[in-house]
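Students often ask what a holo structure prediction actually looks like on paper. The answer is less mysterious than it sounds. You provide the chain, you provide the ligand, and the output is a string of discrete structure tokens encoding the 3D arrangement of the protein together with guanosine-5'-triphosphate.
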Amino acid sequence: MAFPWLPWRRKPAMDGRQLENDFAKIRESALVPCIWLFGKTGSGKTSVIHYLTGAEEAIVGEGFRPETKTSRRFDFPDSIDPLLRFLDTRGLAEATYDPTDDIQQFSQSTQMIIVTVRVTDHALSNLIPPLRTMRRASPQTPILLVLTCLHEATGISDLSDGPDPFLKDIERAAVANASTEETGDVKAGCIPKALDQLITEKSSQFVGLYDAIIPIDLTPVEDGFANPDFGGDRLKKAILSQLPHAYRQALLALNQPEDRRLSKLQRNSRWQVLTSSALAATAGVVPLPWVDIPAVLAIQAHMATRIAAIYDQEITPAQWALLSSAAGTRIAIRLAVREALKFIPIVGMAVGAAGAFAFTYALGMSWDWYFANLQKGHAPSADDLKEVFSNQLQRGHALWRAS
Ligand SMILES: Nc1nc2c(ncn2[C@@H]2O[C@H](COP(=O)(O)OP(=O)(O)OP(=O)(O)O)[C@@H](O)[C@H]2O)c(=O)[nH]1
Ligand SMILES: [Mg+2]
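The corresponding structure tokens follow.
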């Protein structure tokens, strides 16, 4: 396949297979953030993945693949283009679980450990010894202690109805007068005493083994709680703060309320855009001498073919030409010039990463829009495509800066 949108190349146009080979090398060298979910069965690990990503596959367990004897791994959105990896320790079910092999294999790539514990669960003896070993082996890896199923400790009252009392970082003052003696009702914005006691208990049981406690209650909508994602925002913030910038920005855009209107194809295609944008931002700042063409371009070409495949299409040379003209050769050339900038420390890094992220995002969203329209039977005009690209470029830059 020819790529007429690489006019600055002196070599003859590159074929698709060569591009995919280059892409594979880039992918191999990319360090994808990994979250180690450590918790008993039924403690809420999958619910956390689902909350963060919106991936239904995780819920039914299809996406998990055996990794070591005692662990399995879920790559989100898939293992060809992962944006985030989750590790689930199956061995925890055994009283004798020894995490040494898992630690050896994953300590380099694990960004954080999330320990999920049902707040009312007192049988935690299998959990603490291996966690202690993990803490000793990699003391720099942050551990979040996530306490789940809070309503099991709050009776009929709805903790999620009203201001979040944990936003104040569990100021103990909020506990005082949490419930009125006469009615047993919990005052909005307060932590019921029974729950507070359980949290205190957990904090002493796990003392020295966590960096933050995050109480959450992720409930099915049909259960009727005021906020079915209670504490989710706090959890997301704590997780994202530990990830490299490019991945953090991409994950911020995931699983937004407006995404519920998207078709499955559109959702998959957006995941592809985000994972490619994060990779481009990372690859754009690391010189890879063995890659024949600029890494960012290989990533963008790979992204385009994958989005086309999601919509069951193949990209024709005429479509490449259409989008590259909509994207503006001027901008594309500027990006190529920045390839040289990335060798200049610091300045090059900032310019290269931000530009690569936003430009890849805009290209991907434009392909997505283009194919979604084709599928509906509309053939977008070059002018429409130009407008979409320009809007998406702004969105890409805004996403890069979002907090
Ligand atoms: N109410 C409430 N239910 C939760 C919460 N977290 C998980 N659950 C429910 O508890 C059950 C088990 O949760 P999962 O997320 O599947 O637990 P898991 O740790 O992935 O379990 P395994 O895959 O068996 O190891 C599901 O029915 C969830 O809906 C929570 O914070 N609050
Ligand atoms: Mg699970």
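The beta strands are 34-39, 64-68, 71-76, 84-89, 110-118, 143-148, 212-215, 217-218, 229-230.
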